[in-house]
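Q: Second attempt. The first request was missing the SMILES, so the protein and calcium ion are both included now.
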Amino acid sequence: MEINNKTFTLALHRLHCYFVEENEYDDVFLKYNGKKIWPKDKKQQPIMMDTTTDLDVEIEGIKEGQQVVIELWDWDLLSPNDKLGTFTMIIENEPGQFSTDMARNLKETKKAKYTLDWEVY
Ligand SMILES: [Ca+2]
Ligand SMILES: [Ca+2]
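A: Got both inputs this time. The predicted holo structure:
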């Protein structure tokens, strides 16, 4: 039996915002496996409608066939942060560049629309 130990790196390149959830802008951050992975040097990044934001995030050690779920959150000063939605990606045994639309968290989100550009290598 062949044992395949090859792992992949998942790079998150860009976050496109088509609609924000809050007025004017969302204060967003990304989580993976329960931990904040972006932005790296502050709590959150304000994002306005019709904008694209560079991410520069790499997640190493992804196995073939693995499902990766990235959560998009909105930071709030006076109430608990809101999970806007999730990006679910299946890492196949093939390098390439892809885009995934956010699946909205319907409990918290009524209009936010985001897409994530990512790459496997
Ligand atoms: Ca907020
Ligand atoms: Ca809130």
